Amino acid sequence: MKKVDHIGIAVKDLEQVLPYYTETLGCPLMKIEEVEGQKVKVAFIDAGNIKLELLEPMSEDSPIHKFIEKKGEGIHHIAFGVDGIEERMAELRENGVKLLNEEPKPGAGGAMVAFIHPKSSNGVLYELCEKK
């Protein structure tokens, strides 16, 4: 793992929460995009030494919608920046770590992502994030 790339935060409504981050906390909004494959609308917030990734579900079958229904709004995952995501996934599997997906998939910001099952990481959902 190279570094913590971002922290993903599940929110019900981006428009409602953005002023808290941009006005109250004074963190600049970097961009907003939709990730159809994940069924989420994502806002990237520059929090100085780390990015915050606000995740709004775009449909009721979105994993983020299901997360909010079960646990409420809040921290969803911590993403580690990696190089060679396929190799890193193979190493983790060899060490007995369960992954949520077999292959990397497209994520926000043009990254390829994969998730470590929380049962393999003491209840924390970690994302591997490789940016080109």
Write a structural description:
The chain has 132 residues and is an alpha+beta fold. It is 23% helix and 37% strand. It has helices at residues 14-24, 63-71, 85-94; strands at 3-10, 29-35, 40-46, 51-57, 74-81, 105-106, 112-116, 126-130. Strands 2-3-4-1-5-8-7-6 form an eight-stranded mixed β-sheet. Strand 3 (40-46) and strand 4 form a beta hairpin. The longest helix is centred in the N-terminal third of the chain and has 11 residues, at 14-24. The protein is globular and about 45 Å long. It starts with a strand and ends with a strand.
Give a summary of the structure in a few sentences.
By secondary structure, the protein is of the alpha+beta class. It has helices spanning 14-24, 63-71, 85-94; strands spanning 3-10, 29-35, 40-46, 51-57, 74-81, 105-106, 112-116, 126-130.
Helix/strand layout:
Blueprint: E1 3-10, H1 14-24, E2 29-35, E3 40-46, E4 51-57, H2 63-71, E5 74-81, H3 85-94, E6 105-106, E7 112-116, E8 126-130
Parallel strand pairs: 1-4, 5-8
Antiparallel strand pairs: 1-5, 2-3, 3-4, 6-7, 7-8
